[in-house]
Amino acid sequence: MQFGKIRDLREDHDLKQSEIAKFLGVKRTTYAMWELGDVNFPIEKLVKLAKYFHTNVEYMLNLTLDKSEIIYDKDITVEFIGSQLKRYRLKLRKTQKEFADVLNIRQSSYSYYEDGKTRIPTNKLVILAKTYHIPLNYICGGKKEENITVKL
To answer: Which residues contact 141 (CB under 8 A, 6 or more apart)?
Structure first.
C-alpha cells in the first residue's frame, strides 16, 4: 500500500523523515518503511499525523481528495477501533463472517479485531472502507468541526 500523500504532506512542510519519526516516537527507518508502504502504517499513528498536518486519515490513505481537517477527539486504541468497526458492521447489518470473507481471513480472526485483542492492519481497514463505503474518519473517532453561530 502506497502512502504518497503522507510523503507529499511531509515534503510540503519541509520536514525530514527523521523529524516525523521523532514526532511519532519511532525510528526513522520504521517511518521510512511506513511511508514507502513496505510495512503497514498503524492507524493510530496515521491519526496522530492527520492531527499534526491538520487534515484527515481518508485523505492520507488516498480515499478522498478532500484535505479538510477532521477533529479526532478520541484516544485511538485497538479497543476503540474494534468497537467502532463492530458498531458500523451492525449498522450495515453484516455478519463478522461477511467482513472476514471480504478480508480473506477466518471469522475468528476478524472477531479479534472487533474485540480489541488484535490491531486490524490499515490495509484491511482500507479494503473494508472501499467495499462497504465505511468512513474511516468515523472509525477513528473523527468529526468535522461544526460551524458555531454566535447570537448577539
So the answer is: 47, 72, 73, 74, 76, 80, 84
User: Residue 42 in 3-state DSSP?
Assistant: coil
Distance of CA 2 to the CA centre of its chain: 14
Compute the Cα dihedral for 60, 61, 67, 70 and give only its sign: negative
How far is 68 from 125, CA to CA, in rounded Å?
A: 20
**Which amino acid, residue 118?**
T
pLDDT of residue 39: 80
Domain ranges of the chain: 4-68, 78-143
Q: Please say whether the beta carbons of 20 and 46 come within 8 A.
A: no
Q: What is the pLDDT of residues 67-126, one digit of tens each?
A: 999 999 878 899 999 999 999 999 999 999 999 999 999 999 999 999 999 999 999 999
CATH number of 4-68: 1.10.260.40
CATH number of the 78-143 domain: 1.10.260.40
